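User: I would dearly like some help making sense of a protein record. This is the protein in question:
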Amino acid sequence: MAVVASAPGKVLLTGGYLILDRPNAGLVLSTNARFFAIVKPLYDHLKPDSWAWKWTDVKLTSPQLSRESIYKLSLKDLTLENVSSGDSRNPFVEQAVQYCVAAARATLDKDKKDSLEKLLLQGLDITILGSNDFYSYRNYIEARGLPLTPDALAALPAFASITFNAEESNGENCKPEVAKTGLGSSAAMTTAVVAALLHYLGVVNLASVLHQEKDTADLDTVHVIAQTAHCLAQGKVGSGFDVSSAVYGSHRYVRFSPEVISSAQVAMMGTPLPEVVLEILKGKWDHERTKFCLPPLMTLLLGEPGTGGSSTPSMVGAVKKWQKSDPEKSLDTLRKLSEANSALETQLNTLSKLAEKHWDEYRCVIDSCSILKTDRWIEQVSNPNQQAIVKALLGARDAMLGIRFHMHQMGEAAGVPIEPESQTKLLDATMSMEGVLLAGVPGAGGFDAVFAVTLGDSGSHVTKSWSSFNVLALLVREDPHGVSLESADPRTKEITSSISSVHID
C-alpha cells in the first residue's frame, strides 16, 4: 500500500535576517505549491533468503529530473550507500531515509518491530514530485514567444520536466542547478519524504492528527526529524522556518536553539543512530509557533522578475560580517527593522480581529479600497468601525515601507543587493497600484522574487501590470495548511481533475 504525503513551500513575509537569532520572530506563509513524496514497497513479496540479508534496497525516483538512484541501506548501522552510476545523489532524501528508519527502530514497541523489519526487507520505493511553482519556467515561456502571464504557466502539464541553467563558457557552474523560484523546495521535499516515511513505517499516524489542533505530537515528531535531516543535508543549522511552515502551515515563528541538533552533528562519533534520534526527539525544542495567516479577502501574489536567483547563504554571510565590523550601527538598524516587523504583524492581526467582529463593514471597506489608490482609501470611511479598518490598512502599509527602508539600508551597509534598485522601482510601482496593500522582497531579498498582498479582486490587475514590467506573475497563493496525507498519487489526481473539468455543451 503506497503512502502519499505532501508539504507546502513558503514565503517569509517578515523576519529576513532577524529570524536567524532568537528571540526574533518572522511571519511565514505556507503556499499552494506543494512537494509530494510517494513511498511503497520496492518488492511485492519477501524473498526466501531475505532473513539473512544485511542490506536492503532503496530506490529514489525524480521523474521531473529524469533521475533514478539506487541505494543499499545497511540493516545493522543504517548507513546508506549509493550504488547508481553517475552523480545523482540527493542528500536531503538520504538523511530523511536514515533518520526515519532510525526513529522507527528507536520508538516502535517490540510487537511492531517484526513488521517494521519485514517492511524494510521489502525495500523502499520513493518518488518525489514538486509542483511547477517551485521551478522557473520563464526561459521556457520566453523561448516559445509566449506572453509572460500566469495563463502561460497554467498551460504547462502538471509536474513538468525541469530544464537546467546553462553552464558558463569559462567552466564555472559546471554542475548545473535547476532554476528555482525561492519557495523552499528542499525543506518542502524533505518534510514530505519524512512525513510519508514515518507514516509508512508506523511511527506516526498522520490521518488522525491533521484535522485536530490540540494533539500535535505526531506532527512534532515529523518536525523534529525533518529539521534534523534538512540541517544535516545542508551542512549547517539554519533558522528552520521553512521546515516549520512545511509541517505546520502559516504561522509566526521563533527559531529553536541550534544546540538541540548537536547530538546529530556528532553522530559520526560511533553512537548508534537510533540512540542519536531518541536523544534528539527528547531534546529541548524551544521554537515558538503562534497562529497567523493573512486577514480575509487578501491575496498573496508572487512575481519572478527574471534577473536570476540570489545566493541566500552568501548574502547572510555578508550581513553577519557587517554586524561584526560595525556592531553599533548594525544593532540600531536591526532594532528598527524588528520594530517595523512587529508593527506590520500588529496591524495584520488587528485586521483579522476587525474582520471577525465587523464582517459586513470589513468586506465593504476591502471591496471599496480594492479599486482605489491608497490616498483615496480614507474617503471610504463613514463610521468608527470602518475608520479602524482603514487605519489598520494604512498602518500596515507604513510598516511595510519601514521594513523595506531598513532592509535596503542593511543591504547598502553590507554591500549586498537585499532590495536592488530594479526591485525598488518595481515595488514602488506595485505599491502605487489600486488595491495593493503591501509589496516587498521575501526572505533574504535579492533578485529571486517579489511579493504583493492585494485587496479583494485587485490581483488580476496587478498581474497584468507586472507583465508590462517584464515580471512573470506566478500561480502561487497562500494556503495556510501544512503537511498533508494525500489519498492518491498526485499525477493520477491531475488526470482525473483535468478530465472532470472538461465541459461538454
Summary: The radius of gyration is 24 Å. Confidence is low (pLDDT under 50) at residues 167-176, 495-505.
